[in-house]
Structures are given as C-alpha cells and as structure tokens.
C-alpha cells in the first residue's frame, strides 16, 4: 500500500477540518513577518537547514513561511509529508527516510532533494482540528530528544496563538472598514440632505417673497387676485413651518429629548382628525375598517402626524390607487393599524432602507418631495411608544405599512 495515496492521508474529520482552516483565511495568504519569525527561530534552535510552517486544505499543502526552501507555495497533498502529521494529530518524526520502506520511492527522498530527516508538530485549533504543521527538514539523518520534541510542540502552539491573534485583527479591520464605509455613506447622506433642505426651504421662501413683493406694490390689484396670493402665501408659510417642525422633531428624537404626552384616545378619533385635514384628490377615497373603537395610550399630536405622513405617502406615491385602505385590528395588548394602497409598490432592495434617516427612495416612479425624514421619524416614534412598525410590499402589488400602539388600560367599547 502506498502511504502517499491521498485516500490514505485523509483523517475521518477532514471536511470539518478544512472548514476550520477556512475560518482563519490563511490559505494562500501573503507572507507575514510573525510566521517568518517563528520559522527562523525553529531553524536556529534545532540547527536544521530547512524549517517551514504549512497549512493543508483538502488538496494542497500551502507553505506559509520557510527558511532554506525558497519560494515553494503549493504542494500536492499526496506528496506532502505534513499530511502524515495531520493524519496522526501528533508529532511525526522520521529519523532516516531511507530506512522507511514506504518513503523510499517518495520524490523528495529518492530525488535530488535528498530528504532524510523530517519532524512535524501539528498546529491545532482551540476546537481540536489540525490545520497545519511546523516542520524541520534535514538532508542527513538525525533524531530529537524529548526536550526538543516539547520545544517543537510549543513553537507550534505559538503559531496557533499567532493565527488566533491574526483572525481577531482581521475581524477588527473588517469591522473598522465597514464602520468607515458607513461613516462615508452618512457623510454623503448629510451632504445630500443639506442640498435637499436648501432646495425645499428655498421654494416656499421664493414664492412667499414674490407674493409679498407684488402685494406691497402701490398699484391696485383685483380683490380676488389679492385673496388668492394671500392664500398661496399662507400655504408657503405652512410648508416652511412643517419643514422646520420635521427638523426639530427628528433632532429631539436623535438626542433623546422628545417627550411624549400620552393619554387614552380612540383610534377612530385619530383617523377622523387626519381625514378632515388631509388633501385627498377627487379620484381617491380613504376606506376605514376594523376595530376603530379601540382606545390606545399615545401622544395624540405625534401619532396624528404619523398617520398624516403615511396617508400622504399613499396618496402621493400611489396616485392611481382608487382606494387607500386603513384597517385596525386588536393584536394582544396592542392595536395594529395598517395603511394599504394598490400602487406600483416598492422595489425589494429599498425596503430595508425606508425607515433610515434622510432616505427619499420610497419609489422611483414619482417625483420625491420633502426631507426624507417622515418614515424615520415614524419608526422612532413608534419605538418610543413601545410598538413596532413595518412594511409589506412588492412591485405592482401595492404597499402595506403597519404599526402597533399600546392599548389603553380598561378601555371601553362605545
């Protein structure tokens, strides 16, 4: 039997062992000074011409660091003496390869390389997988004392400790890279947000300024024109006020200073207020159903603002949806309120971004307006109330935004 037949060099747990190796991302990695130093130390201690540190996957031995070998790189596993160490999970010592019948035909023994002595100590992971070896090679026979064997084992442990430290550093580097990327994205978002704020504020200010200039002229104006201009000026003022309110509210939430003034209120009352104030096109209607008599313990002003935002979004982003459905259900100690439309829906890749600050990617089929703070504010507000918020949507199937609010204690159904 040829001991170097690869089928004879595979431990029973080789698949799991290779997975353990992959976790360290070391195979085929560039040379590193720490491993070079371990190999140089081994060569100096044992006074051998060749020392190397290798890792083995299912097909190859990868020489990570070496002294006396030059650049080797990958060695087929069926030719690897280190595969014996992986197989036995213990120090392997071959004092004279010519005296080992199974090695006499090995290319490293019978060829020009002239290998005679080999010693390999396993590099063992904390979960007991042998993923590599620290090896000593000589071209003349020799042996190791028990003390030398112990030293070789300890050097292999140092290699494993260095590998663990390397993995920790890689994870930290990856985390820092992700954090840095996220920071860059946030800076970009803020820069874009500043541009959006400038545009959104400039529009009503410019309109307001124009109306005031016209009205301040001495030339007489028709009363109907003056009235219309004053109405438009009032709308511009209201838009400015809304934008400032959005900025202040988000600032309070981000800085944890938004105070809720909670009190019991019937869901129907919340919806009635919103339906009276919202601008609904003649082609659309709001249909309300479910347990609207439920009483919830909420900050009424803030929750009405949230409902206004969801209804306004449904009207704006689903203009062809003839009905906007609002449904109220009792879910345990919470009331669940759902706002649904039959619009174009939201692309799947955008769903996870909807409740992030500065996000304006609700839908690309219509023109976006506003500061991109509405859904972020809504999510944070619901969180402060102890509830949950989410969205279910698919393209061409419409969108369903839902949120839960705590029920008022001992509510009465009227």
In short:
It contains ten helices and 13 strands. It is an alpha+beta fold.
Sum up the structure in keywords.
414 residues, six-stranded antiparallel sheet, alpha+beta, disordered C terminus, disordered N terminus
What would you say this structure looks like, in words?
The radius of gyration is 36 Å and the shape is elongated. A hairpin with a 3-residue loop joins β12 (389-394) and β13 (398-406). α2 runs antiparallel to α5 (146-216), α5 runs antiparallel to α6 (223-254) and α6 (223-254) crosses α10 (374-384). It is of the alpha+beta class. The strands form three sheets. The chain has a six-stranded antiparallel sheet with strand order 3-2-1-6-5-4, sandwiched between helices. The protein has helices at 14-22, 33-46, 82-88, 107-110, 146-216, 223-254, 267-277, 300-317, 348-351, 374-384; strands at 50-56, 60-67, 74-76, 92-94, 117-124, 130-138, 262-266, 285-290, 295-299, 323-331, 334-341, 389-394, 398-406. Residues 1-7, 363-371 and 410-414 have low confidence and may be disordered.
Radius of gyration: 36 Å
Q: Whole-number average pLDDT? A: 83
Q: How many strands, what sense, and barrel or not for the largest sheet?
A: 6 strands, antiparallel
Query: N- to C-terminal separation?
Result: 90 Å
| Low-pLDDT stretches | 1-7, 363-371, 410-414
Please count the beta strands (DSSP E, at least 2 residues each): 13
Shape: elongated
């Amino acid at each position: 039997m040829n001991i170097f037949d690869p089928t004879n060099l595979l431990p029973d747990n080789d698949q799991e062992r290779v997975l353990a190796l992959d976790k360290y991302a070391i195979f085929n990695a560039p040379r590193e000074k720490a491993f070079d130093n371990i190999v140089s130390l081994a060569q100096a201690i044992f006074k051998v011409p060749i020392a190397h540190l290798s890792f083995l996957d299912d097909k190859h031995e990868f020489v990570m660091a070496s002294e006396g070998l030059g650049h080797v790189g990958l060695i087929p596993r069926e030719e690897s003496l280190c595969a014996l160490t992986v197989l036995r999970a213990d120090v392997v010592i071959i004092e004279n390869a010519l005296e080992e019948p199974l090695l006499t035909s090995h290319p490293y023994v019978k060829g020009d390389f002239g290998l005679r002595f080999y010693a390999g100590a396993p590099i063992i992971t904390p979960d007991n997988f042998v993923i590599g070896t620290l090896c000593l090679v000589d071209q003349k026979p020799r042996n190791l004392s028990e003390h030398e064997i112990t030293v070789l084992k300890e050097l292999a442990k140092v290699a494993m400790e260095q590998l663990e430290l390397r993995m920790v550093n890689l994870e930290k580097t990856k985390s820092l890279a992700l954090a840095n990327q996220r920071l860059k994205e946030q800076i970009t978002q803020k820069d874009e947000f500043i541009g959006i704020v400038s545009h959104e504020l400039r529009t009503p200010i410019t309109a307001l300024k124009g109306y005031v200039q016209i009205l301040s002229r001495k030339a007489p104006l028709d009363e109907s024109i003056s009235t219309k201009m004053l109405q438009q000026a009032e709308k511009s003022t209201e838009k400015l006020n809304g934008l400032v309110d959005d900025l202040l509210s988000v600032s309070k939430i981000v800085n944890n200073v938004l105070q809720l003034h909670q009190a019991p209120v019937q869901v129907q009352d919340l919806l009635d207020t919103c339906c009276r104030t919202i601008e609904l096109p003649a082609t659309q209607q709001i249909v309300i159903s479910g347990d609207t008599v439920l009483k919830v313990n909420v900050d009424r002003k803030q929750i009405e603002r949230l409902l206004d935002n969801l209804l306004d979004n449904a009207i704006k982003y689903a203009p062809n949806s003839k009905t906007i459905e609002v449904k109220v259900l009792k879910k345990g100690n919470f009331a669940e309120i759902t706002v649904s439309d039959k619009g174009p829906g939201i692309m799947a890749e955008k769903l996870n971004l909807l409740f992030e600050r500065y996000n304006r990617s609700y839908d690309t089929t219509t023109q976006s307006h506003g500061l991109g703070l509405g859904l972020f504010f809504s999510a944070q507000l619901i969180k402060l109330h102890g509830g949950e918020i989410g969205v279910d949507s698919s393209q061409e199937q419409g969108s369903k935004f839902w949120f839960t609010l705590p029920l008022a204690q001992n509510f009465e159904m009227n």
